[in-house]
Amino acid sequence: MIQHMVMMKFAASVDEARRAECVRQMKALPEQIDFLKDYTVGVDELNVGTSWDVGMLIRFESMEQLVEFRDHPAHQAAQKYSHPYLASMASVVFDLASAPAR
User: Fold this and answer.
1) Which of 6, 47, 50, 97 could potentially form a cystine with 91 if both were Cys, beta carbons 3.0 to 4.6 Å apart?
2) Rounded to whole angstroms, how far apart are CA atoms 77 and 68?
3) Closest alpha carbon to 25 in 82, 89, 72
4) What are the beta bridge partners of residue 88?
């Protein structure tokens, strides 16, 4: 099982309508990509200096499935829309089998 985590910070100049549209497009991806089963998008609730604006958690059955998601036209369209509005983005991908269980 592969865990993919993404954090996004909008540019300060981006208005609320554009921010909401970015989030709406991200939240709509499971309707367009049938293999997305464990997929969560959330908007930051804390709003402190170290906060990011939006976070995504996605689990994939394999790295091949992650690549299929990365290259999927619906994901590409959401990225094309949102990326110009981002000041920064960070992501990490790791195999849950190698993460210690607690």
Assistant:
1) 6
2) 14
3) 82
4) 9
Strand-pairing partners, residue 38, are 59
CA dihedral 34, 93, 25, 65 (to 10 degrees): -20
pLDDT tens-digit series, residues 46-74: 989 899 999 999 999 999 999 999 999 99
Q: What is the pTM of this model?
A: 0.89
**Which of the 8 DSSP states describes residue 100?**
P
Helix-then-strand count for the chain, H and E: 3, 4
Q: What are phi and psi of 13, to 5 degrees?
A: -80, -10
Amino acid at 34: D
Query: DSSP H helical segments within the chain, as ranges?
Result: 16-32, 63-71, 73-82
